[in-house]
Write a structure and sequence with these properties.
Two copies of one chain form a homodimer.
Chain A (H helix, E strand, L loop, with lengths): L2 H11 L6 H12 L4 E2 H7 L5 H13 L3 E4 L7 E4 L13 E6 L5 E8 L9 E12 L1 H7 L5
Helix pairs in contact in A: 1-2
Chain A binds a DNA duplex through helix 2 and helix 4.
DNA sequence: CAATTTTTGCAACTAAATTGCATTTGAATT
DNA sequence: AATTCAAATGCAATTTAGTTGCAAAAATTG
């Protein structure tokens, strides 16, 4: 499988040096369907120092590879940006979903935020967080119901 | 003026004991048009211990008097709930606005979020955060422009 | 493969938030 | 209004999150 060289290409495209840590972090995000918290990273990649993981997250964000999703519990999580993002510009008009059962946050790339006009205000950015029960948890909690 | 007894009533209605600190915190929120951070509280109410302020915020949230608005800078802010909220149920389908000039976050109670249907997901709550330039800052930064 | 720049890991540090506990205060009851 | 019990407060100590400085290691460039 060619994963490794794909990862390298992705990092290069975002103006990031190729290091073991960055490759592992990138892979972690790619193989996970939901947004990861710092804690998730720390638990999943014990071979790297906390500080290095913080710095990796920050450089990924700075270079447009990740975006930060603030959470009402105070712990932000992070998800891969769609291809539109880069070093210069970030576009995050997509919708996030938080499941109240499993707690995972995910991006809903297919959906975009209905543009709202607010009188007397100039709106340049918007972020929408939905919550409820996600696809997986719906299946596993009520399989017989319908 | 009857403020004081109004405050008491509000606290009682939310199943909260009446204390000096709670009255002052409630008043602070009522007299401020934007959401307050913990820091705002700490600076504005120096007569109380930080710990007490933390606990006051938490009990207000628990009893449905305040809601927490996560901020992308990591510092949440807090705003009074509309009347629908109580001990049992929280409804926060209103819109929040963050001004990139003054940094203040406010609720936009007149606006509600267009209901989004997402296939395979059960949506129970939604929160929309807009950002841009608020009414006040628009006026003060470009008074001659129109 | 040598030179230069960036990244990493460690230790120390700062700041935010929580916990335990003794004391004080609020409110229900007599 | 005095008594009682539960809840709230303040302080000290602690935990947790995140950052900074710096020397060593690794990555890029030519």
């Amino acid at each position: 499988m060619m994963k490794f060289s794909e990862y390298k290409k992705t990092l290069k495209n975002h103006d990031l040096r190729i290091t073991d840590c960055r490759i592992d972090v990138l892979e972690f995000f790619l193989k996970t369907s939901y947004a990861l918290s710092f804690r998730d990273l720390e638990d999943g990649l014990k071979e790297y120092d906390r500080v290095t993981l913080y710095r990796t997250l920050n450089s990924f964000i700075e270079k447009g590879l990740l975006h930060r999703i603030p959470n009402d519990n105070g712990f932000a999580s992070y998800a891969l940006c769609l291809d539109e993002c880069n070093n210069q510009e970030h576009h995050h008009d997509h919708v996030h979903f938080k499941c109240n059962i499993c707690g995972h946050i995910e991006c809903l790339p297919g959906y975009s935020i209905p543009k709202l006009q607010v009188e007397d205000y100039e709106i340049s950015d918007q972020s929408l967080l939905l919550s409820g029960v996600c696809k997986k948890c719906l299946k596993s909690t009520a399989p017989s119901e319908n």
